[in-house]
Amino acid sequence: MLFYALSTIYSVAAFGFFVTGEYTLRLPEFDFPPMDPLFYEYGTVMLNSGEIRGEVIMSNVTAIGLSKARISNARTQFLSHDVFHLEISVQIPEILLKGVGKINGSLSVFRIINEGHFNITLNDVRALWEITGHVVNDTWIVEEFHITPLIGKFKIYYKDLSENNKQLSDLIINFINEFWPAIYRSVLPIINKELEKFYIDIANRLFAKVSFSKVFP
């Protein structure tokens, strides 16, 4: 639930400056499907950090609000004669997420084996992207893609598929809504590590289609 909300933010943030319509960089049009709403069919995250352990599976997820993303700052520099570094600061006022979640694991003292429908609201989402890679034959080959997101407010609503677990589910959801900042800090390194390859793949598929010298004159 919370875990996948964080994963979704990271995933969609990687597309942000290609879909907002307010580019700091001069990027050409790409043949991408509409990104708002964004549909995500299936995803799995393995967690093993402190008191948060287990497998989270999410499906049929819809994210709304990405079209409101704005770039607040962008900086570029060459770290060496052929290694290029880009930093971008992005702000998204609100993201709404809904879908189906399945979890088998534990959160603090709670043992969780559960499946249900979730609805999550994230406010004041800010992210710093740090992208680095070599430039070869006028093509930027991304080798590192780090995203550091900050969330201003988080709220989750959850409906258990089994009414037999409703009391426990409500207790866990209240716990998450109360202590989400600590949970977020705990899972952040895991999610960053899991998703970096995904970001790198997306970036390289995009930058392989354009001339580096034209995008970054």
UniProtKB/TrEMBL annotation:
InterPro entries: Haemolymph_juvenile_hormone-bd, To_sf. Pfam families: JHBP (PF06585). One of its GO terms (cellular component) is extracellular space. This is Lipid-binding serum glycoprotein N-terminal domain-containing protein. It comes from Atta cephalotes. The gene is 105627663.
